[in-house]
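Sample intake sheet
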Amino acid sequence: MPDYANDALVSADWVADRLEEFQSDDPEYRLVEADIDYDESYAEEHIPGAVGFRWGPHLQDSFQRDILKKADFAEKMGRAGISDDSTVVLYGDEWNQWAAYTYWQFRYYGHDDVYLLDGGRKYWLDNDYETTDEEPDFPAQEYDAGGPYDGIRIYREGVEDALEIDVPLVDVRSAEEYRGEKIAPEGSPETAQRAGHIPGATNITWKENVNDDGTFKDPDELQSLYDEQGITDDSEVVTYCRIGERSSITWFTLHELLGYDDVRNYDGSWTEWGNLIRSPIETEVDDPASRASKG
């Protein structure tokens, strides 16, 4: 692996060499695939021994539109055969978006021995590594969740405070979403009433962190990407997207791979901010409707 600031990635070869351990009832090693298109991805084929998590019902409190409460997270992990001492490797579709969100949630609840599979599902399949459609049935484990550790998470009130002191914000969505031309990516529900971005945010899309094969760019490329936009490690940085998953990729890049000390993911993201009454927003769309939406 390239010389990143933290040991947070494992290679496909590293996982392939340990498939027997990942398939064991012993919870020392656990592999997790986290997807949005669960039925068309994990259910069809996955890495042998991988537990499947669907982003919505498995990793979200859909009633409150929030991440899992601490007790719910512990219950779901334990039921999946994961203990708080397990070495957990995460991967998924969409260039590891959902896996990065899951990684962030593991870290939020104090699980340090957790990694992303570099390249995710895309890289594994494109390079013809072994797959199966058999779902593992591991013995349940005790999972003692820690935290929560809010140093890696920020809430709406914190974002409002950050605007007052010019904390750098990174909007990782597409340029069209950032400019206010669309509210959500194609095929996604428009979960906000208004389009645009949080005032002062810099648009560095999440895809700029990864190569075409799904693996992360090397440290020098990543550092140059953020240095050129003035996103440096001498202050707090806030990342956001629409629902918190794409911004988890950028949070992972800055906090884990580049070693920035104070990076917080705003998981409320545009779904929350774009629905707030009188919240300040900016657009780059020159039409009366968009100008009125800046409210």
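Comment: The domain at 151-293 is CATH 3.40.250.10 (Oxidized Rhodanese; domain 1). DSSP finds twelve helices and eleven strands in the chain.
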